[in-house]
Write a sequence for this structure.
């Protein structure tokens, strides 16, 4: 069976409709309730081997449901969020797991294998993986080592930078046979966001999200299509979308505009969230004299989006939601 690395919502809806029709047909022909329930399961669930289509267009055959998974650090959080059996993972550039899921990895005895930007094949062999997951891009990508990885275990490549964590969870669920767990993880988060939205009072006007680096540096501004903006939108905020002509990098991005420091003075949002900072860390932006006339600064409405808000998985997204409730609830 062949699995796509990214499934559109339309395809998922059609698949769901087909499953429902099969279940109804089964019930009408005298099947038991238990059999009818089985017919509603995802078509791929429980079937092996299966073929995964990687982010680069190549395919990987996975012979049996993985029981010992190794991943690069950017993907590990989403694997843990669907209860995947992760036994080893790369770490951040500092040699540590990401803060939003480090405790969970420790509880599950996930072994630290290497730091981002490197790979330790001996350590990888030592944990005896039956599936390796790597990112298509970023400092933790191991695409240059695919041949070595594939000699050790089936290896899949996912585009975690170009997908929401929910879409990535769906792909990883299909690759690992954990489709139901992935769906449940997404449902839980959606319900959590909906509950949080009812607890807050969203300020008037727009909001923006800035990775503040100060004078002489690029200061990336989140676009409306970014994962961070998506979370705030679900909570009821309207996002100020930065002009794409501000982008200083050769390659366009769907998630952020790399803007010059001077461009920050042209922003108009009434509320500003600072990426990778808590409220204390966000004060550097609020106290920058060049930015004193920004509406969000004048309104005293500058907040940290959270120390783990750069890389979005279920755990960091939940931290963002909790921070918004803390700042705007009650």
């Amino acid at each position: 069976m062949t699995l796509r690395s990214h499934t559109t919502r339309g395809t998922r809806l059609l698949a769901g409709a087909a499953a429902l029709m099969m279940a109804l047909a089964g019930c009408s022909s005298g099947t038991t309730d238990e059999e009818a329930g089985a017919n509603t399961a995802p078509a791929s669930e429980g079937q092996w081997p299966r073929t995964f289509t990687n982010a680069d267009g190549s395919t990987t055959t996975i012979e049996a449901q993985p029981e010992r998974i190794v991943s690069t650090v950017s993907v590990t959080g989403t694997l843990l969020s669907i209860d995947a059996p992760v036994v080893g993972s790369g770490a951040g550039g500092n040699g540590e797991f990401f803060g939003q899921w480090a405790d969970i990895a420790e509880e599950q005895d996930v072994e630290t294998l290497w730091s981002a930007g490197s790979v330790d094949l001996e350590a990888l062999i030592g944990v005896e993986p039956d599936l390796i997951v790597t990112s298509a891009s970023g400092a933790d990508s191991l695409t240059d080592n695919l041949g070595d990885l594939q000699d050790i275990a089936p290896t899949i490549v996912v585009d975690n930078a170009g997908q929401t964590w929910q879409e990535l969870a769906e792909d990883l669920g299909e690759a690992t046979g954990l489709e139901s767990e992935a769906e449940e993880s997404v449902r839980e988060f959606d319900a959590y966001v909906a509950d949080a939205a009812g607890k807050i009072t969203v300020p008037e006007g727009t909001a923006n999200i800035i990775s503040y680096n100060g004078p002489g540096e690029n200061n990336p501004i989140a676009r409306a299509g970014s994962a961070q903006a998506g979370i705030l939108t679900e909570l009821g905020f309207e996002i100020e979308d930065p002009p794409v002509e501000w982008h200083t990098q050769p390659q366009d991005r769907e998630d952020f505009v790399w803007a010059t420091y001077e461009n920050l003075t042209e922003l108009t949002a009434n509320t500003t969230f600072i990426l990778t900072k808590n409220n204390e860390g966000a004060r550097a932006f609020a106290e920058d004299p060049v930015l004193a006339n920004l509406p969000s600064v004048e309104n005293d409405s500058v907040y940290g989006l959270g120390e783990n808000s750069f890389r979005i998985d279920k755990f960091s997204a939940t931290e963002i939601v909790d921070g918004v409730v803390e700042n705007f609830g009650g």
Q: What stands out?
A: The longest strand covers residues 86-91. The domain at 206-328 is CATH 3.40.50.1980 (Rossmann fold). The chain has two domains: 45-192, 206-328.
